[in-house]
Specification:
Length: 357
């Protein structure tokens, strides 16, 4: 006899259908409309980034430079400084934002971030080691070293977080990431202090900045970053299943281990390339997923698409602020830290109060 007061049994098929219905975009939310609005805002910020700085340049002068290709001072500023740093901001912002979405998804930890989990510190440590021990100076070598550093650190932190656990433990992963990141940062600082040549080569890069005057750096990293973003988009449906829990995800046909490994590979690729280009820049991967989630809801695909635009929007805006408020400019990593630190404190209080966001 059926108990009318007992909850109905739910199969994996029912869970999948209800999940898909919850993720269907409604006309009122119009996620594609929000995406177009963000794209227009990003184009506007990129335009402002070309105009604004220690020396303001009028739109007519910018058009003259682009069309006539003159050798004036304004031409040098635009071609050798502002345009490259805007392109770098687009790449690095998108890479860090998508990496943050992936990290928070596979760890199911709202405080996860490439900086907090030590991924950026691992990439920086490997680049520094290559400079000091191997004398590596070329950009391709830096990219490979940063990628392997980010990958090894990601795998090690993930292994520590899942050691003797049936499934991912968000608290253990966070603590392991903070500890490993602090250890690698301390060792890196010791190496640079004891090696004047390494200190001179790494001090500007290690601060985290978009002030890169060579677009060849961006051209080398653009394909790996695009591949990492495409991989994140491909595994988005599987990450939606994984958000329901590993057992339910397996019941829905998701290969949990393969998805987690693919996510770790994408994270390492995105963080390694962005760190090799611009140095370690924190808090982008922490803030953007929460902002994007408020716009997209739980759908991982829309979350990633929003993050691709929100990341560059935030980092280029921070770069503009750093250029405007000080003559010698404030590094973008410092501006993002001033914004990101209060956000981290707020999120930590939310997690402590409610157990989740």
């Amino acid at each position: 006899m059926t108990n009318l007061f007992s909850p109905p049994e739910t199969s994996c098929h029912d869970v999948k259908i209800s999940r898909q219905r919850a993720m269907l975009p409604t006309r009122r939310s119009s996620p594609s409309g929000k995406l177009i609005a963000l794209l227009l805002a990003l184009l506007m910020i990129c335009t402002v980034s070309i105009f604004v700085g220690a020396k303001s340049i009028s739109p007519s002068m910018v058009m003259d430079v682009l069309l006539a290709n003159t050798d004036s001072t304004e031409s040098l500023i635009i071609v050798e400084s502002r345009f490259p740093r805007t392109v770098i901001g687009l790449l690095v912002g998108a890479a860090l934002a998508v990496a943050g979405c992936l990290i928070q998804s596979i760890t199911r930890n709202p405080l996860a971030d490439p900086g907090i989990l030590g991924v950026n510190a691992g990439a920086s440590f490997f680049v520094l080691t290559g400079v000091v021990l191997l004398g590596n100076q070329s950009m391709p070598e830096h990219l490979w070293l940063a990628f392997f550093g980010a990958l090894i650190t990601s795998v090690f932190v993930y292994f520590v977080g899942t050691y003797k656990e049936a499934r991912v433990n968000p608290l253990k992963i966070t603590l392991a990431g903070v500890a490993i990141g602090a250890l690698l940062a301390g060792v890196s600082s010791s190496i640079t202090l004891m090696n004047p040549m390494a200190f001179d080569q790494m001090r500007f890069w290690d601060a985290g900045s978009l002030d890169i005057r060579d677009l060849s750096l961006a051209s080398m990293a653009v394909l790996p970053i695009i591949f990492g973003i495409l991989l994140a988009l491909v595994i988005s449906p599987a990450l939606d299943n994984l958000s329901l829990g590993e057992d339910i995800a397996q019941g829905l046909g998701t290969n949990v281990k393969l998805v987690q490994l693919a996510a770790l590979f994408s994270i390492a690729l995105l963080c390694g390339c962005s760190t090799a280009i611009a140095g370690p820049i924190g808090f982008i991967g922490l803030m953007i997923p929460h902002i994007a989630r408020r716009l997209s809801g739980p759908n991982q695909l829309w979350l990633t698409l929003y993050a691709i635009l929100l990341g560059p929007l935030l980092i280029i805006s921070a770069d503009i602020v750093g250029r405007v408020i000080a003559v010698n400019e404030i590094r973008v990593s410092i501006v993002t830290a001033f914004v990101g630190a209060p956000v981290l404190i707020y999120l930590a209080r939310q997690v402590t109060s409610f157990g989740k966001l």
